[in-house]
Specification:
- With 74 residues, the protein is an alpha+beta fold.
- It has one domain.
- The chain has three helices and four strands.
- Strands 1-2 form a two-stranded parallel sheet.
- A hairpin with a 4-residue loop joins β3 and β4.
- It is globular and about 25 Å long.
- The chain starts with a strand and ends with a strand.
Length: 74
């Protein structure tokens, strides 16, 4: 299981993590790609900045997450 507690991510560096900054830095998509299977638990989703909600619309609709560097089919 892949668990992220969004209450911990309330600063600007979260946008780099979520949307991808560079291939050498950690990102949400990169961490998903490194796993063989993905059961994702997003704890306290409502605690993240509402600007980040849009990053998950495609995940909820199509099972696809994309950032600047990677695309993950869930």
């Amino acid at each position: 299981m892949f668990r992220k507690q969004f209450s911990m991510y309330q600063n600007n560096s979260f946008s780099d993590y979520l949307f991808g900054a560079s291939h050498s830095s950690a990102s949400f998509a990169q961490e998903l790609l490194e796993r063989e299977s993905n059961v994702i638990l997003i704890d306290e989703f409502d605690k993240a900045n509402p600007l980040f909600y849009s990053a998950f619309y495609q995940v909820f609709d199509e099972g696809l997450f994309s950032d600047k560097n990677y695309t993950v089919h869930l």
